[in-house]
Specification:
The structure is a single chain. The chain is an alpha/beta fold and 253 residues long. The protein has a single domain (4-247), classed as Alpha-Beta Barrel (TIM Barrel). It has ten helices and eleven strands. Strands 1, 2, 3, 4, 5, 6, 7, 8 and 9 form a nine-stranded mixed sheet that branches. Strands 10-11 form a two-stranded parallel ribbon.
């Protein structure tokens, strides 16, 4: 089983490189997309989990050879260009785990703070839940919203879905606590394709104890891209609910 904290350190040494006072990080794609009503996206290389439903798993399992290093300035420039050309109001970092190489992330946010765009940080929350300093640093950026994507509804599901130590699920929950305590805008999403209605209910009740607004849980489900179907078979995972990526319900976009 993966220890996501120590594994983060291993991944960071590969996907980041320091040049002077700036940190470059590996990315494999910059794109526009329909999510959130339209958003510019930078997709990172490297994660501290190994999810059996990950749409970006090829990049995250080949971190030494996949993608290229980009400076914070280059990343911000690409995002702003896409957002400007498509008239988006939102930008984000997605793909892998953006909090790995945290100094790079903060440098990107520093640059974007002079623009008009709102930034969505999509994260599994592991590092934010492990060390509150992450939430404290993120609290400086008022144009930032954090989407914490829970991998399942409990420790058992988390371990099965991520190949990580089941107890690390608590870091995800703790991330939400840390963010709220530092007044960082955030919400919880959860992968529910493998969960029962009962387990979903239990999760929502737990989140409500942290803050009532967390009960408005964003539901995530598996999209059956060919490469996702491949990894599901390898991991012997059978989603209870999944969607054809060409027929995604508008409520999930």
């Amino acid at each position: 089983m993966i220890d996501p904290i120590s594994f983060s350190n291993v991944v960071e040494k590969i996907v980041t490189v320091k040049e002077g006072k700036f940190v470059k990080r590996k990315y494999y794609r910059f794109r526009g997309g329909r999510w959130y009503g339209g958003i510019a996206t930078a997709d990172t290389v490297g994660c501290n989990l190994s999810c059996g439903f990950c749409w970006s798993w090829k990049a995250n399992t080949s971190i030494a050879t996949y993608g290229e290093y980009y400076s914070p300035k280059e990343v911000a420039k690409r995002l702003v260009e896409i957002a400007s050309n498509r008239n988006y109001g939102l930008v984000r970092i997605s793909g892998g785990e953006p909090t790995i190489g945290f100094e790079h992330l903060l440098q990107v946010l520093d640059i974007l703070s002079s623009y008009k765009y709102n930034f969505i940080l999509e994260t599994n929350g592991i590092l934010i839940g492990y060390d509150k300093k992450y939430a404290k640093e993120l609290s400086k950026y008022k144009f930032l919203h954090v989407r914490v994507s829970l991998k399942g509804t409990n420790e058992e599901e988390f371990g099965k879905l991520t190949n990580a130590e089941p107890s690390a699920f608590r870091f995800q929950i703790n991330a939400l606590k840390n963010l709220l305590e530092e007044n960082v805008s955030c919400h919880a999403a959860a992968m529910l394709s493998f969960s029962s209605e009962e387990e979903k209910f239990k999760l929502v009740e737990e989140l409500k104890k942290i803050d009532e607004k967390l009960a408005d849980l964003e539901e995530e489900y598996v999209f059956l891209y060919p490469h996702v179907v491949e990894i599901l078979k390898k991991r012997n995972l059978s989603p209870r609910i999944a969607y054809d990526p060409n027929k995604i319900p508008s409520t999930l976009v």
